[in-house]
Specification:
The chain has about 180 residues and is an alpha/beta fold. About 35% of the residues lie in helices and about 20% in strands.
Length: about 180
Amino acid sequence: MRASLVVIPTYNEVESIGKILDRLKDLDLDVLVIDDGSPDGTADLVRMHNVEVIEREGKQGLGSAYRTGFSIGIQRGYTYIIEMDADGSHQVQDLEKMMEWIGSADLLIGSRWVADGGIANWSKFREYLSKSANTYANVLLSLGVKDTTSGFRIYTTELLKKMEVSTIRSEGYVFKSK
């Protein structure tokens, strides 16, 4: 059984994806990029880094990209599947810290709203929106999670199977809260 697969959805990420792939190659994991027909050459750059890329026609959505990547990871027998953005908002050094906790839970969330967390290049409105969404989700659902909206996560394949990810039809950022 393979250990870890990082799934990275992309659309016009040619400016940032190369740096991320360069950093990921030093980690003990596989990478799968799901590209939604980026006209800027993102998929070509990914291939130049000898990383597998699934090219899809047109923008099919973030949720669809993750469902595709998760399904492939499950089919290939990975133990852990990691979701990570390609825009540079998720740092590889933070992934390394998260990976130290693998095996301690079925879901690890890279939170922006904990002591070691953080954000870069966000407007005050975006920060307010994220904090408000997390407060709302916690009041409504009593989750006790500081960052329910984070898209930087490590799942066990067993949890993804229980979630029946293929049946989720949400797209965009709402996909991450299902």
